[in-house]
Design a protein that fits this description.
About 0% of the residues lie in helices and about 45% in strands. β11 and β12 form a beta hairpin. The radius of gyration is 14 Å and the shape is globular. The protein is an all-beta fold. The chain has a single domain, classed as Glucose Permease (Domain IIA).
């Protein structure tokens, strides 16, 4: 994917992409304090700003090359469908809405209906070395 992404929020990755006992985790969970800004990972257009049963308050952005990013469990969504956003622009705040037990942002990168591991597409900051072990007490069931 020829698109450069930025981290949607600052925090430790508490749950990684991939297989879980309860199914497949289509993104990563990034722990952050309640109300922490959530940023657009790349420039794009808002295609959803809604509430969904599992994701709670969720924002979905469409980017170049048919790429979609998803930001879930938000406390507040700050954008509306049709809004154009820049990379790094604040689009929501961290919450624990939907099926979440702790404050975090669930972040996905999709293209053509397929989910990609965000850790392979985000820049590698030092905090990645501190990925917490995935365990049965994961933050959500997405």
């Amino acid at each position: 994917m020829p698109l450069a992404f930025v981290w949607p929020t600052d925090g430790l990755v508490s749950s990684t992409f991939g297989r879980r006992r309860s199914g497949w985790h289509r993104g990563i969970d990034i722990k952050a304090e309640h109300g922490t800004p959530i940023l657009a990972a790349a420039a794009g257009v808002v295609i959803a700003s809604a509430v969904e049963p599992r994701y709670g308050r969720v924002v979905k952005l469409e980017h170049a090359y048919g790429i979609v990013t998803v930001y879930a469990h938000n406390d507040l969504n700050l954008v509306a469908v049709g809004d154009r956003v820049a990379a790094g622009e604040m689009i929501a705040t961290v919450g624990k809405t939907g099926r979440a037990t702790a404050y975090h942002v669930h972040f996905e990168i999709r293209r053509g209906g397929r989910a990609y591991n965000p850790l392979y597409l985000l820049p590698l900051p030092p905090r990645i070395a501190r990925v917490e072990e995935m365990n049965e007490n994961h933050l959500d069931d997405e």
